[in-house]
Specification:
By secondary structure, the chain is an all-alpha fold. The protein is about 65% helix and about 0% strand. The chain has six helices and no strands. The N and C termini lie far apart (about 45 Å). It binds fe (ii) ion. The site of fe (ii) ion has 2 residues, from loops.
Length: about 200
Amino acid sequence: MKLNPSKETRITGQETEIQQYGTVVNRPLSLDHKVRLANVESLNQILADTMTLRDLYKKHHWQVSGPTFYQIHLLFDKHYGEQAAIVDALAERIQTLGGVAIAMAHDVAETTRIARPPRGREDVTVQLFRLLQAHELIIDGTRQAARAAAANGDDGTNDLLVSDVLRANEFQVWFISEQLAGAGIAGKDEEAARSVAEPRA
Ligand SMILES: [Fe+2]
């Protein structure tokens, strides 16, 4: 096999696909095609948002600064690892339902609802607010998707969303929120929240 194939033989795009994104193949799961299609779509949105939150944790793990550097540096990486496990569980649930899991950064960037952060470093308070905002968006979407999955009979998806995604996100919100409870931070809250709430154009 040639490592640098000529232009004529280079693999480029859709002509190589064996299943298109946004479709579901049949599985003997006793779940209608319509149900699996709807739940795969919800799961892919949560997956794209979770991949973005996972990467936001790594960005903040690397770029954090200040007197609490060491403990927050470690906390951010712990949460990164937990979000990476959720990403795998969501993607594999999508494949289990016969769908196609979103995977690459380009596609995730086009799909996620989480505001794009700047490339540069931000103050730790802004980092924490940005994470809380991303968590809340995922929590809200996960509750809605979990209820829909329970209503349409997909108990497996409901269980994954409630037991693994929702509870882990709620737990991480506790740890991140408590970082903001220290003296002297309250005055900065509004300013930090405002700067996170206004995504860059
Ligand atoms: Fe590291």
